[in-house]
Sequence to fold (112 residues):
Amino acid sequence: MSFSKVTSRILEPVPSDRAFYFYADIGRPLGVIATGLKEFGSQLKTVEVASLEFHLQRRDFEKWVQMLGDADLANSLARLREGGLSGEKLRAELVRVVQTRVRQLQRTPSKK
Fold:
């Protein structure tokens, strides 16, 4: 698969069974869903910070972006997890990392 096809696949929305579902804790869904990486970046701005901390520590974000096919972003999220950030500092870094990656992927030239 060419780089541009991989990039397109990473940015494409996914069906609801592969979407990211935000939880406050185990068994406590928030009703907030992201069906793609761009939407995920937007949801990170508003979802309660306890949910971000919960998912980051469980490596849920890393696993989900890996499923999308983006090992680079998964590695960046792992580094954030290892950095021990919490609260609004964590939110700011998550948003920055995800939105930067989306911009990088959108700039990738596609060959048709």
Summary: The chain has a mean pLDDT of 92. The radius of gyration is 14 Å. The longest strand covers residues 28-34.
